[in-house]
Design goal:
The complex is a heterodimer of chains A (156) and B (105).
Chain A lengths: L2 H42 L17 E14 L2 H13 L4 H21 L5 E11 L10 E13 L2
Antiparallel strand pairs in A: 1-3, 2-3
Chain B lengths: L1 E2 L9 E16 L2 H13 L1 E2 L1 H25 L3 E13 L2 E14 L1
Parallel strand pairs in B: 1-4
Antiparallel strand pairs in B: 2-5, 4-5
Classes of the chains: A alpha+beta (156), B alpha+beta (105).
């Protein structure tokens, strides 16, 4: 191996390390910030029930009902992608992905609730997850979560 | 037009059923967004461009469904369901369907 090839190999290694570091630090920073925002916003909706039941209780007359939805597309960072690839060799739970999907679902739910900001309850909440394909190996790691429900307001 | 994903419109009576109405659209991403997305793939987090794209596409599909319902003379669509499927590399189909009905009260 001559000098040039050695430099090229070193350069490639540096790029990978840089991406790993970027993914680890920036990705973690993003995640912490996101979780903080999620907790704060979830508290605002604590007294607005979101139900998964398909039927609406008859005990309170309803004045208005409309469909609300929230969407988010999230992607995993480079560090977690590599960590997940290593985990795949041994099997078991891929915790890096669990937190991604957890964040995405909660964010989608919050956006749905934001859309129905003056609602008093959400009925028949449905959450749908789909993988957004960008072709090749990158397919894994980018997911779209859609949350939708019927927002209602009761008659006074 | 009232939209719900319940089996009825709460507080109102269904007087007529018109059957299934549907709307769909197939969207491809554009290159600029794809480049931004691959950059975002390094640090993770939300891909805002894609979120906007899919929200817009879903609205388009819903509008097509509503146009169908209107043509039938319905004033509500109940039991609305969304579904997403990737039909080709880099393209996704957003499909929405429901039951067109006439409600009173």
């Amino acid at each position: 191996m001559d000098g040039f090839e050695a430099y090229a190999a070193l350069f490639q290694l540096l790029v990978v390390l840089l991406l790993l570091g970027l993914g680890f630090f920036v990705g973690r920073w993003h995640e912490n910030r996101h979780y903080k925002a999620i907790h704060r916003r979830e508290e605002e909706y604590l007294n607005v029930p979101a139900l998964v039941t398909r039927t609406v209780p008859e005990d309170r007359p309803i004045a208005e009902a409309w469909l609300v939805s929230g969407t988010v597309v999230v992607s995993i960072d480079y560090f977690k992608r590599i960590a997940a690839a290593i985990r795949k060799l041994f099997g078991g739970e891929i915790r890096a992905y669990s937190s991604l999907l957890d964040r995405a679902r909660r964010e989608a739910l919050l956006r749905m609730k934001d859309e129905g900001a003056n609602a008093e309850a959400f009925h028949n909440v449905r959450i749908e997850t789909s993988s957004i394909s960008s072709g090749g190996r990158k397919t894994i790691g980018t997911v779209e979560v859609l949350a939708y429900a019927t927002a209602v307001r009761y008659r006074k | 037009m009232i939209l719900t994903n319940l089996e009825s419109v709460p507080g109102r009576f269904i007087t007529r059923h018109f059957g299934l109405v549907q709307g769909s659209t197939i969207r491809a991403k554009h290159v600029g967004r794809d480049i931004m997305a691959s950059l975002k793939n390094i640090v993770g987090g939300e891909l805002v461009g894609y979120t906007e794209l899919l929200t817009e596409a879903r609205r388009e599909a819903t509008e097509r469904m509503l146009a169908q319902a209107e043509e039938l003379g319905a004033n509500a669509v109940i039991n609305v369901r969304f579904s997403t499927s990737s039909v080709a590399q880099g393209a996704a189909e957003l499909y929405v369907y429901g039951t067109a009905v006439q409600v009173e009260g």
